[in-house]
């Protein structure tokens, strides 16, 4: 286990145990002999905007997959809101309050924009009654979600034909629509123009003011601008953690990551 | 008693080995292409009819038919791959439908050509051989040896040849084909053709010891599936233990109960086994 | 080994012509033209017995029963993406329940109880089968194969359990449906009246089906079919939804089977087997998956064609069926509803202009 020197500048108020939302203990994922995520210990306080950076293949998405429950943990534990969620399935974790936006938008391509959002909204009040009518409150909530963001397509449009930018936006809106405590965002701005990236991050930051955000992002400028704290992964292991200003000063990070950047 | 037991065991063995041939064809098609071939039973039926029509109607020796059957069925398979399957690689469930349609059509063509009545192929190796414990029909002994030779040959190909080793990597990881430098289009066509050929060969080989009729394929189709599923799809060789359980146990049970009941018991058993062990009965270590 | 090929994307087949004014999805029939067409169609169907011969009306009765059966298959296949090769097992189970109950027990109005049980028992069996298989993580193609085996096991079981099922001779003299209140009234539905009973059942099942696919539950099913991973990551448990819809579907299939038994008076093991299981898939496929009305049209058209032209292709019907299956899958996966949607668009345009 690599001991990471703590960042002295970390705001102490947020590290008290009762405000901790997510905690991983020795979280590990192996694929055969490859260790994709190696003994990762992170602790995210409630309300924090936390980014995970690292070179390609550092294990960022694998870590996300384990947090979201789409990939079983090889070793270690995940605690969410004080309770262990290790081994729970992805939908159970959503019900606990973790939701995730994929890097490649995963939309229901044959359904309309509004139906996609309504599916996300409805998951909070699932009904197994097969002849229940659509709740107009859900429809309304979906419309309101859509109005929060600049969206060029009509609500009734089938999502298959949306532009990439709109797909990314819808993906994020859907993740927000399940009203999560912890939002996992996997490269929300990838493939999006610089101008759109800025407005998208602006939106994410505003929409998640009350939430805890864990962000994977390649655009280091955006990470440094929005994050409260940053974790740097390299070859599956945490090599540094701290405030943006601390991270930019950290030599280990510069060697492993910024150097090649 | 020992005589009866030996006879029963040899019967079960020959049924299990013949099923292994057919199931191996199914496993090859599924392993390399991800295609569930519901036309497999029809391929077997066509093979059996070739083994019937050549000696009984055209005066060609059964042994020639046994060689020609896999070739003809293989060509049919290659043609079907070309015309139908190739266009459906990204629609897995649709290939199930399409191959079922092909199966219906092939079986109906057989009915139109030869009628619906059962045919019997006269035994090409009449007589029995004294094994000491029991006297056993010569053709069934030949069938056992023949199936073993073919199975060993196929497994040697995958074990020892360069192409075979690369192909085995594909079975374990379907995305590995491009890494192995294999021409996917050609690999798919060869897989489907050789899978079909094995079904045709199986059909021809069992023709003398069974009744040949247009609907004979369905039972073999299901038994092959169950053999493949039961063994597990991670390794081709798993079809052998799978077949031994499926065909062998049904065969032994028919000594005591009706064939239909025996088959039903086996099917129910396999479904339960799948629920308990979805990855198949064969241990992971065999997958190498 | 479910990872052999990535998500096969089957159904719900969208109307191939989609413009923004229509805002169609999930195969909704929500436009004026459709209501108009359906209304007209119903009128024609109500008038049919007065115009056509008893033989033709008799064909229609069976065709409509198969239409209900086809709707049950479309619910699982067209919407949830579950391909069942063994749905006839549930149709036949309903038929045998009806047959055994009504011939063994002589209670008043027993046929009505039979209809209820023919829905409930197959529904419970379907729930158990799907629940066990899906929760064990059986992949979709294995599920398909198991359903095929189920159909064969079911038809063999009907042969073996000859004390109850009559074995290969089947069950005969199943009484027609009737209502009987002892001492008050006895009313047996005649063959001609049965046409209307079945028509009402078909319309009711169709409307319930529509309601199901338009419900939040139905949207979730479509979501599962389109992207099961995403449905999970929105907090839905796909296994529960798939299990429930499968149970609903097998219940409806059993109900259709009971209607069949009460009409034909005779049932035998092939009713449970894979041939009928395949036929219903062809009906759904030809009509159009994920449209509800398409499968009804497919079932009616093909069943009528099979019986009316069977003289023409005496021995080639199954051959044609097989080739049709291949051709439709290859070149026309949206079925005939795909053609209708183009006509529908034209009518809509006309209605808008006037």
Q: What are its keywords?
A:
heterotrimer, A: Rossmann fold, 6-stranded mixed β-sheet, 4-stranded antiparallel β-sheet, 33% helix, C: mainly alpha, ABC transporter involved in vitamin B12 uptake, BtuC, two-stranded antiparallel ribbon, 2 strands
Overview of the molecule:
The complex is a heterotrimer of chains A (261), B (288) and C (354). Chain A is 33% helix and 24% strand. With 261 residues, chain A is an alpha/beta fold. In chain A, helix 3 runs parallel beside helix 5 and helix 5 packs parallel to helix 6. By secondary structure, chain B is mainly α. The longest helix of chain B has 32 residues. Chain B has a two-stranded antiparallel sheet with strand order 1-2. Chain C has a single domain, classed as Orthogonal Bundle (ABC transporter involved in vitamin B12 uptake, BtuC). Helices cover 69% and strands 2% of the residues of chain C. Chain C has a two-stranded antiparallel sheet with strand order 1-2. In chain C, a hairpin with a 3-residue loop joins strand 1 and strand 2. Chain C is globular and about 55 Å long. Chains in contact: A-C, B-C. At the B-C interface, helix 4, helix 9 and helix 11 of B face helix 5, helix 11 and helix 13 of C.
Task: Briefly say what this structure is.
With 261 residues, chain A is α/β, with parallel strands linked by helices. In chain A, 33% of the residues lie in helices and 24% in strands. Chain A has nine helices and ten strands.
Order of strands side by side in the largest beta sheet of chain C?
Answer: 1-2
What name does CATH use for the topology of the domain at 17-108 and 180-258 in chain A? Answer: Rossmann fold
State the end-to-end CA separation of chain C: 57 Å
Quick one: CATH class of chain C? Mainly Alpha
Gross morphology of chain A: globular
Helix content of chain A: 25-40%
Give the H and E element order of chain A: EEEHEEHEHHHEHEHEEHH
From the N-terminal CA to the C-terminal CA of chain A, the straight-line distance is 26 Å
| Strand segment count of chain C | 2
């Amino acid at each position: 286990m690599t001991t990471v020197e703590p960042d002295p500048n970390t705001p102490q108020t947020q590290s008290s145990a009762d405000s901790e939302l997510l905690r991983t203990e020795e979280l590990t994922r192996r694929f055969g002999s490859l260790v994709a995520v190696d003994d990762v210990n992170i602790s995210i306080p409630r309300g924090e905007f936390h980014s995970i950076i690292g070179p390609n293949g550092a294990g960022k998405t694998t870590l996300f997959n384990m947090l979201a429950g789409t990939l079983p943990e090889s070793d270690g534990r995940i605690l969410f809101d004080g309770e262990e969620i290790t081994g729970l399935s992805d939908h159970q974790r959503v019900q606990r309050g973790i939701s995730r936006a994929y890097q490649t938008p995963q939309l229901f391509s044959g359904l309309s924009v509004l139906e996609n959002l309504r599916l996300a909204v409805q998951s909070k009040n699932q009904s197994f009654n097969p002849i229940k009518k659509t709740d107009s409150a859900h429809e309304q909530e979906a419309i309101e979600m859509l109005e929060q963001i600049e969206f060029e397509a009509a609500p009734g449009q089938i999502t298959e034909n949306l532009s990439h930018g709109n797909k990314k936006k819808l993906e994020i809106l859907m993740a927000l629509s399940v009203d999560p405590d912890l939002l996992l965002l996997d490269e929300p701005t990838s493939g999006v123009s610089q101008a759109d990236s800025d407005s998208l991050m602006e939106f994410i930051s505003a929409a998640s003011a009350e939430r805890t955000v864990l962000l994977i992002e390649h655009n280091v400028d955006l990470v440094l601008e929005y994050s409260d704290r940053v974790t740097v992964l390299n070859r599956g292991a945490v090599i540094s953690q701290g405030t943006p200003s601390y991270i930019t000063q950290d030599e280990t990070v510069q060697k492993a990551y910024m150097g090649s950047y | 008693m020992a005589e009866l037991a030996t006879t029963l065991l040899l019967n079960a063995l020959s049924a299990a080995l013949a099923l292994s041939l057919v199931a191996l064809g199914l496993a090859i098609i599924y392993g390399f292409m991800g295609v569930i071939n519901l036309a497999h039973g029809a391929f077997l039926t066509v093979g059996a009819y070739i083994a019937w029509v050549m000696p009984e109607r055209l005066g060609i020796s059964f042994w020639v038919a046994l060689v020609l059957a896999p070739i003809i069925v293989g060509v049919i398979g290659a043609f079907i791959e070309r015309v139908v399957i190739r266009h459906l690689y990204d629609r897995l469930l649709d290939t199930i439908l399409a191959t079922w349609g092909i199966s219906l059509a092939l079986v109906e063509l057989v009915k139109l050509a030869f009628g619906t009545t059962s045919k019997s192929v006269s035994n090409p190796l009449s007589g029995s051989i004294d094994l000491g414990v029991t006297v056993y029909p010569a053709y069934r002994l030949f069938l056992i040896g023949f199936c073993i030779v073919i199975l060993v040959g196929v497994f040697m190909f995958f074990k020892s040849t360069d192409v075979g080793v690369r192909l085995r990597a594909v079975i374990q990881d379907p995305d590995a084909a491009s890494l192995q430098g294999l021409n996917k289009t050609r690999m798919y066509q060869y897989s489907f053709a050789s899978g079909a050929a094995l079904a045709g060969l199986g059909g021809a080989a069992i023709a003398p010891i069974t009744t040949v009729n247009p609907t004979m394929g369905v039972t073999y189709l299901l038994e092959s599936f169950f053999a493949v599923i039961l063994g597990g799809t991670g390794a081709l060789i798993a079809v052998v233990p799978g077949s031994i359980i499926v065909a062998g146990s049904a065969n032994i049970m028919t000594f005591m109960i009706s064939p239909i009941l025996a088959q039903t018991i086996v099917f129910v058993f396999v479904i339960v086994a799948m629920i308990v062990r979805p990855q198949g009965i064969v241990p992971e270590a065999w997958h190498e | 080994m479910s990872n052999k090929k990535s998500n096969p994307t089957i159904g719900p087949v969208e109307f191939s012509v989609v413009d923004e004014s229509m805002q169609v999805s999930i195969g909704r029939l929500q436009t004026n033209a459709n209501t108009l067409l359906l209304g007209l169609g119903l009128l024609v169907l109500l008038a049919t017995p007065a115009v056509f011969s008893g033989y033709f009306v008799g064909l229609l009765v069976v065709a409509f029963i198969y239409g209900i059966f086809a709707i049950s298959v479309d619910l699982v296949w067209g919407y949830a993406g579950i391909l069942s090769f063994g749905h006839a097992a549930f149709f036949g189970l309903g038929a045998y329940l009806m047959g055994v109950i009504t011939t063994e027990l002589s209670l008043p109005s027993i046929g009505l109880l039979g209809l209820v049980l023919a829905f409930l028992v197959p529904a419970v069996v379907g729930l158990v089968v799907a629940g066990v298989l899906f929760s064990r993580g059986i992949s979709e193609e294995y599920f398909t194969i198991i359903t095929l085996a189920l159909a064969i096991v079911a038809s063999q079981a009907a042969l073996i359990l000859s004390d109850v099922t009559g074995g290969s001779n089947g069950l005969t003299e199943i009484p027609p449906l009737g209502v009987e209140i002892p001492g008050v009234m006895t009313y047996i539905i005649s063959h001609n009246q049965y046409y209307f009973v079945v028509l009402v059942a078909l319309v009711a099942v169709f409307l319930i089906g529509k309601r199901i696919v338009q419900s939040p539950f139905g949207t979730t099913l479509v979501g599962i079919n389109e992207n099961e991973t995403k449905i999970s990551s929105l907090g839905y448990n796909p296994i529960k939804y798939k299990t429930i819809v499968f149970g609903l579907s097998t219940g409806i299939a059993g109900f259709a089977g009971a209607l069949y038994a009460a009409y034909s008076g005779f049932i035998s093991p092939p009713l449970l087997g894979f041939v009928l299981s395949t036929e219903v898939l062809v009906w759904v496929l030809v009509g159009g998956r994920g449209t509800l009305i398409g499968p009804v049209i497919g079932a009616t058209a093909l069943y009528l064609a099979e019986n009316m032209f069977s003289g023409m292709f005496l021995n080639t019907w199954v051959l044609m069926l097989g080739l049709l299956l291949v051709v439709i899958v290859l070149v026309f996966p949206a079925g005939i509803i795909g053609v209708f949607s183009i006509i529908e668009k034209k009518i809509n345009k006309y209605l808008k202009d006037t």
